Amino acid sequence: MGIRNTFRRWAAYQQTVRELNALDNRQLNDLGIVRTDIGRIARDHAKTI
Prior knowledge:
With 49 residues, this protein is an all-alpha fold. The chain is built from three helices and no strands. This is YjiS-like domain-containing protein. It comes from Devosia enhydra. It holds the Pfam family YjiS-like.
């Protein structure tokens, strides 16, 4: 894995965390997400990049 790919994954992780943290608890609940899941979801998403 190259540095560019590592940076892309890190950026995707950060963006996902930012976007999910911007939602309130009701919006997260509508998506079936609890706030404590955000880190895991962001990591899972970054792995797909």
